[in-house]
Amino acid sequence: MGKTIAEKILSEHSHTDAKAGQIVVADVDFVMVNDVTGPIAFRKYDEINNSKMFKERMVLIPDHYVPNKDIASAVQAKEMRDFVRKHDLPNYFEIGKGGVCHQLMVEEGFAAPGRLIVGADSHTCTYGAVNALSTGIGSTEAGVVFATGKLWFKVPESIKVELTGKFRKHVGGKDLILKIISDIGVDGANYKAFEFCGEGVHNMSVPDRLAVSNMAIEAGGKAGIFPCDDKTEEYIKDFVRGDYTPVEADPDAQYCRVLKYDLSELESMVAFPHLPSNGHAVKDVDVKIDQAYLGSCTNGRIEDMRVAAEIIKGRKVADGVRFIVVPASQRVYRAMVDEGLMDIFLDAGAFVSGPTCGACLGGYMGILAAGERAVSSTNRNFIGRMGDKASEVYLAGPEVVAASAIAGKIVTPAQLEGN
Fold first, then answer.
1. pLDDT over 60 at 419, yes or no
2. Max intra-chain CA distance, the chain
3. pTM more than 0.85
4. Closest listed residue to residue 209, CA positions, set 191, 219, 195
5. Dihedral of alpha carbons 48, 42, 98, 91, sign
6. Helix H or strand E segment including 134
7. pLDDT in the model for residue 368
8. Helix (H/G/I), strand (E/B), else coil: 396
9. Following CA atoms 244, 136, 336, 345 in sequence, which dihedral angle do they give, to the nearest 10 degrees?
């Protein structure tokens, strides 16, 4: 019987014949923690009292409350810095030199085909876009990986997602994943891996794949894995660390479910409060907004900034609307400056920040008051996610967020042109 990509990667890393449903102990290539999840992992490592530490496999990225918003977040950040200094850890990305953790894991070359990566953050599944098996874990588990370099896994069943066609203009990866989650629900892939395949995959950019893999967890998924192709190799070639081995599924691999999508038939989607599965076609809605947010580990890449800038160039943000733009890394920020995108956003009346997760998780910056509505390129719209419990978050792709900031209500770029 053939194997899925997830089964193959876990077989290789556990040195066993791993099959769906089995429990294996596997060697981890990299483990990531951020400023919120790291301190708990540090304490667990100290509790284990193991003199051994897998330093080269550890990646530490402050991003959730940076720059520190209050004394409590400053204490968390200091605890991470102190741990880094104490153990002389090489893979630490201070603010001003890093960005949002999941962007950094790809941008700094830790994510690559065939690798097994864990992170103390649920959206670690992002790296499946570059053919890795990556998944979120708890902070205490991260501390165990610090000490042992290993972790136990239940080998997930896989859902095969067959893609054909290519996206229409201003439709992309965010629309695909919102459609999938709307179809199967927020628990439709519980502890399963999405495995994407078909000609449609090769018509998708890697940034679109990253947006899709990022939100696999919003359907309960353990991972969202794409094959490695020429686009993957080209995307990572300038920054990948070390060697890697692409992994393909066997032709006779077994799947628990098969989903099929023609990318050319998809349209701009928006997820209404308070679940990512509450999807609607943008053309069918009429929702006024108070805030538009472009950024996050889902859609804060330079490609997202480019498409948004193209839409708002020469226009102004609607009266009564705040447009907050947050690049996902310092590298994206610099590219925005170099390409003139910063001027476009500033001229339109947007607020542009350095990289941070602050607004996305409702930690600070861009907090919504009761009754306010935001359209956001982030990945979650749960009650109170970005502010007051009586506020509302609508999830959409960067094109819709940009068009909506100008229109003052949720619209597609085509609808904006028609105004």
1. no
2. 65
3. yes
4. 195
5. negative
6. strand 133-136
7. 95
8. strand
9. 160
